[in-house]
Amino acid sequence: QVQFVESGGGLVQPGHSLRLSCTASGLFLDYYAVGWFRQAPGKEREGVSCISASDGSTQYGDSVKGRFSVSKDNAKHTVYLQMENLKPEDTAVYYCAANTMRRLCTSNPTMHEFNYWGQGTQVTVSS
Asked: How many other CB atoms are there within 10 angstroms of residue 59's CB atom?
């Protein structure tokens, strides 16, 4: 049984940073395309970032480009999302997800492509 462990969420002031971590028991995340998604209250889940296992290439949603950075530690089978210059509109529950049918992120990853999901971690940006 696959179980994700997400951590790093919390309450921060605007302009500050957070780093989210995601690992999974029963699944080596560095073998697959891994995406980060977020969902704010009353809004649809949106893609934030994706990192490919095959070449380590990365993709970002327009709203986070230049502020967020996704990376992975293959030795620890862990994927990270470094979030800089956080804004109140970044407030959401953040989820990591794995697409175990692909090692390469698609050109515009959607949540329907990912078959394993973490439980989510809350990020709140507020002064």
From this structure: 19
What are 47's strand-pairing partners?
A: 37
Answer yes or no: are the C-beta atoms of 25 and 5 closer than 8 Å.
yes
Percent of the chain scoring above 70 in pLDDT: 100
- Is the per-residue pLDDT at 57 higher than 90? yes
Can you say whether residue 113 is alpha, beta or left, with left for phi > 0 and alpha for psi between -120 and 50 degrees?
Answer: alpha
Adjacent-strand bridge partners of 37: 47, 95
Q: The tokens of 103 are what? A: 């090692």
Please, what is the Cα angle at 121 between 33 and 115, to 5 degrees? 35
How far out from the chain centre does Cα 31 lie? 16
